[in-house]
Write a structure and sequence with these properties.
9-stranded mixed sheet; globular; single chain; alpha/beta; 40% helix; Spore Coat Polysaccharide Biosynthesis Protein SpsA, Chain A
């Protein structure tokens, strides 16, 4: 069945403790017709030397070196040079199961679709947990990560979709544009291993957490240009609720200026765009504690929310 070339893009920066496991997991894929693109984002540590030693006898691996520009810039660099019909992304501190590529490819072919999506295994120091991606989670972009998916490359090319350079939430600026417009298939297996690092972007907070405003607005404007905004209004509204009203507040708990007034300001942003956000049809699918949180938010109980997030925030996986 190995007919199509599939490009796997791996941006590399400061991952000398992780790159060996990551790269070997890609090399050992059961689907062999791969182009493995390693993009060195001017990494100052020993990551590149480790990768080159592993790759000595594998001609499928191509190395590219570029001036440091961040994760989005490295992904875009790899995309522009990829020759495969299909694209996968693997972050260099993560790793994939041996059948990751094969099963995502099979799902696209079998279902005649444009994208395939698998479940995610979160890997902690002492345990693991599974994020199950069902149809409603995929539809609502609850897990918009670029890396647990396979895409037809033409989706990026034909729609001029790239990752936003210099911004956080780069996945929210890209994958929803495709999953909201194109057909996708789900693979009910945890084939992507998402390593939880305390110093990763998802566990830190500074003013870049507010990049989410422009990122989601970019997706909304894209939907307007495609004349899909009205049809996708409820989904876009839910994205604001889930990723800003909930997600940004939870991430802001590590911000040095986190306060009840910051929570109020974050929610005002959503309320100004979606005045009746609390009527969104998809709120019903959220866990009970999120529903309680949103009720408190609507009642402007910002101090209570602040205390709860500070106390319990680290126990929530967004």
């Amino acid at each position: 069945m190995e007919k199509d070339l599939i490009s796997v893009i791996i941006p590399v920066y400061n991952v000398e403790d992780y790159i060996e496991r990551c790269l070997k997991s890609v090399i050992n894929q059961t689907y062999k017709h791969l182009e493995i693109i390693v993009v060195d984002d001017e990494s100052p540590d020993n990551s590149l030397n480790i990768a080159k030693k592993i790759a000595e006898n594998d001609k499928r691996i191509k190395f590219f070196h570029k001036k440091n520009g961040g994760l989005s810039d490295a992904r875009n660099y790899g995309l522009a040079r990829a020759k495969g019909k299909y694209i996968c992304f693997v972050d260099s501190d993560d790793y994939i199961e041996n059948e990751f590529v094969e099963k995502l490819y099979e799902a696209i072919r079998k279902n005649q679709c444009d994208i395939s999506i698998c479940n995610i295994k979160r890997v902690y120091d002492n345990h693991t947990s599974i994020d199950f991606i069902d149809d409603i989670k995929a539809k609502l972009c609850i897990r918009p990560a670029a890396w647990n998916k396979m895409y037809k490359k033409e989706l990026f090319e034909n729609n001029n979709i790239t990752f936003p350079v210099g911004k956080w939430y780069e996945d929210l600026a890209t994958t929803p544009k495709m999953t909201m417009e194109y057909k996708y298939a789900l693979v009910d297996e945890a084939l992507y291993n998402y390593v939880q690092r305390s110093n990763s972007i998802t566990h830190t907070a500074d003013n870049r957490i507010f990049d989410i405003y422009s990122v989601i607005e970019n997706t909304e404007n894209y939907m307007k240009e495609k004349k899909l905004y009205k049809r996708k209004y409820s989904v876009l509204e839910f994205m604001n609720i889930y990723h800003i009203s909930i997600g940004t507040v939870y991430r802001a708990k590590s911000h040095k200026e986190f306060s009840p007034s910051m929570i109020r300001d974050i929610q005002m942003y959503v309320k100004e765009k979606y005045p009746e956000w609390y009527k969104n049809e998809y709120i019903k699918i959220l866990p009970f504690y999120y529903k309680c949180y949103l009720i408190a938010l609507r009642l402007k109980m910002y101090t209570l929310i602040y205390l709860c997030v500070k106390i319990f925030g680290n126990k929530v996986n967004l």
